[in-house]
Specification:
With 586 residues, this protein is α+β, with helices and mostly antiparallel strands. The protein folds into three domains: 13-46 and 150-346, MFS general substrate transporter like domains (Growth Hormone, Chain: A, Up-down Bundle), CATH 1.20.1250; 48-141, no CATH class; 369-586, Up-down Bundle (Growth Hormone, Chain: A), CATH 1.20.1250.20. Helix content is 63%, strand content 6%. It has 23 helices and seven strands. The chain has helices spanning 3-11, 16-37, 39-42, 150-153, 162-189, 191-208, 215-242, 246-273, 277-284, 286-297, 299-302, 316-323, 327-340, 352-361, 372-397, 406-431, 433-449, 452-457, 462-490, 494-518, 526-529, 531-546, 562-585, and strands at 48-50, 68-74, 79-85, 89-96, 119-121, 132-136, 139-141. The strands form two sheets. The chain has a five-stranded antiparallel β-sheet with strand order 2-3-4-6-5, with no helix packed on it. α15 packs parallel to α20 (494-518) and α16 (406-431) packs parallel to α19. It comes from Elysia crispata. Residues 59-78 are annotated as: Disordered. Residues 67-78 have a biased composition (Polar residues). One of its GO terms (molecular function) is transmembrane transporter activity. This is Major facilitator superfamily (MFS) profile domain-containing protein.
């Protein structure tokens, strides 16, 4: 007997027990969103400039980036130097004697310079027209928004600015490793045990992040945290989708995804009240701590729930036991859930046939080479996963570079995500997967591209225009990403569904890695500041146009074979033609 049939006919598709577990396990996704999105604030680089070499306790409220400051370098020698302070360099406009005549660099003893550890003097320039540049070794930062961040503590600025992107890259690579190898590890150590271990690692590493002092330690803890996050939320997301019946599956899937956005709002609220990154990181670890405690406390409630991260077609807690031949334990779990839902399980159910059927259907992705139409579909889907992930994470991480208040922009991005998810829930079954998905990508891409128009027009409302268009882009991309989770498995046959899901996850992680660098990519000028938005918008439009070649899966039976999958598009076209003819007759 099929697991879905058992849920529909005997256990209940979304009863009291499933609602409790769905709500509880959704906290894993929320905690994952918190730890990834908090990097927008902990790695934020505020305005800065070189520290004034002649001032012991310099601050950003001192001379501005373009101010010219004249100092007497050594009393008694009468030598003065005029220099300008910028973000990364001290530019020396001239070196002169006390009578104002130019002084040759060869005659100048640079050891006279006060606080010589604050710069690195370039000896390449010399002569009476002395003009040289010194690289900063110390900086002062604007503390009007944040008292301190990782970037200000470890000086991720100037030629070290890319280190903040490296740090986020380690977080994304950790997620890739967790998504790829999480399922195999679950088979080895057990489903529930792996989740408990990964959640504990997630909490401990999140707390340890507050003690990092260099990029190497930061990269290590981010790698571990990303691995733990992916392993935990992959399992939680899969369980919540498969714990309920088919009729409620898309609603529950969108709800679980939306808890990520609630994590964004939580981070935005914390960052507004906590402006010191150590305390902010500790406060952001609270959801993980609460969930670990709650899961252990409620162990008796879900002690029998075991699941596989890679099994995406049936309820994994019983499926895993059935695979091991422990049918009686699987039946006890179903009986327990049915009883909690106020239902009663039949005296005898046969789980073995479903497991045997699944094992016989499992095939390699090499089978795509035998079917060019499905191979093209796979390429389009993988590109869409890459583009959606890159654009979503890129827009999320780029919030700190938008014009306007960073806290307002960040919270608005979370709110617009929730609005997009609500739209998806209301329209997904009525309009169809393909139409909403393509429209969402195109709207999101156009929103990002059009951000350049308010900047070109200028005026006091340009900030609001850029913000509104950027949030439109986030609305569209977040909606499309949520749909893609449900849309992808419906386009491929049962035998290839798990493999496609794994390949899609890898493609998405590659997009996340690329986003960690593109989010911080800027050029000089206001339009150059929006370069990431232009890239994200272009990718979104390309993905949306490519997705027009995909079939509609709404109210279409899931394909059981490769032939069924190939015929899906033909079936939809014939159905559309029939509907059009009926509408003309009426």
């Amino acid at each position: 007997m099929k697991f879905d049939d058992i849920l529909q006919q005997q256990v209940g598709e979304l009863g009291r027990h499933q609602k409790i577990l769905v709500l509880m396990l959704s906290m894993v996704m929320c905690s994952a969103g918190v730890q990834i999105m908090i990097t927008v604030f902990t790695l934020h680089a505020p305005n800065y400039r070189c520290a004034d070499p002649a001032v012991d306790n310099d601050s950003y409220t001192g001379p501005g980036p373009d101010s010219s400051v004249q100092r007497e370098l050594s009393q008694g020698h009468g030598t003065t130097v005029q220099y300008k302070l910028s973000e990364c360099y001290i530019d020396y406009a001239g070196l002169r004697n006390h009578d104002g005549s130019p002084k040759n660099l060869s005659e100048f003893d640079k050891d006279w310079l006060p606080h010589n550890d604050k710069w690195l003097l370039d000896d390449s320039a010399s002569g009476s027209n002395f003009s040289t540049r010194a690289e900063c070794r110390q900086w002062v930062y604007d503390q009007s928004v944040f008292a301190s961040t990782m970037s200000t503590q470890m000086n991720f600025v100037c030629d070290r600015k890319i280190l903040s992107s490296h740090a986020v890259m380690f977080l994304m690579v950790g997620q890739m490793i967790g998504a790829v190898f999480g399922g195999s590890a679950a088979d080895f150590v057990g489903r529930k045990k792996l989740m408990m271990i990964m959640l504990l690692v997630h909490f401990v590493v999140s707390v340890l992040t507050t003690w990092v002092t260099d990029i190497y330690t930061l990269g290590t803890v981010y790698l571990l945290n990303g691995l733990a996050i992916a392993s935990a939320y992959c399992a939680a997301f899969t369980l919540t989708l498969e714990l309920v019946g088919p009729r409620w599956r898309h609603v529950v899937g969108i709800f679980i995804t939306s808890t990520w956005s609630f994590g964004i709002l939580y981070v935005g609220m914390l960052s507004f009240f906590i402006r010191e990154w150590h305390l902010l990181q500790l406060a952001a670890s609270l959801p993980a701590a609460f969930f670990v405690f709650f899961l252990w406390w409620s162990e008796a409630e879900i002690s029998s729930v075991k699941f596989s991260c890679l099994d995406v077609s049936t309820p994994p807690w019983t499926r895993w036991l059935a695979r091991k031949g422990r049918y009686s334990e699987a039946e006890k779990i179903l009986e327990h859930i049915a009883r909690r839902n106020g239902n009663k399980l039949a005296a005898k159910i046969d789980l073995g046939n479903d497991v045997i059927e699944e094992s016989q259907q499992s095939q390699s992705l090499v089978m795509f080479l035998r079917c060019p139409p499905l191979l093209v579909r796979l390429i389009v889907v993988l590109f869409n996963w890459f583009a959606c992930s890159l654009t979503y994470y890129g827009l999320s991480l780029n919030v700190g570079h938008l014009f306007g208040n960073i806290h307002l922009n960040f919270c608005l991005s979370g709110i617009f995500e929730l609005i997009g998810f609500a739209m998806v829930v209301l329209l997904l079954s009525r309009v169809g997967r393909k139409k909403i998905y393509c429209y969402s990508l195109i709207v999101g891409g156009m929103g990002c591209l059009l951000t350049v128009i308010p900047v070109l027009i200028g005026g006091e409302w340009s900030v609001h225009g850029v913000r509104a268009l950027a949030m439109t882009g986030k609305f569209g991309i977040a909606s499309a990403f949520a749909i893609l989770w449900l849309y992808t498995p419906e386009m491929f046959p049962t035998s290839l569904r798990a493999g496609v899901t794994g390949a899609s996850s890898c493609s998405a992680r590659l997009g996340g890695v690329a986003a960690s660098y593109l989010a911080n990519l800027t050029l000089k000028g206001n339009v150059g500041h929006l370069l990431p938005q232009i890239i994200f918008g272009t990718l979104g439009l390309m993905a949306g146009l490519c997705a027009l070649t995909l079939p509609e899966t709404n109210q279409v039976r899931l394909p059981d074979s490769m032939d069924d999958a190939v015929q899906m598009k033909k079936h939809v076209l014939e159905q559309d033609k029939k509907d059009n003819q009926e509408s003309l007759l009426t």
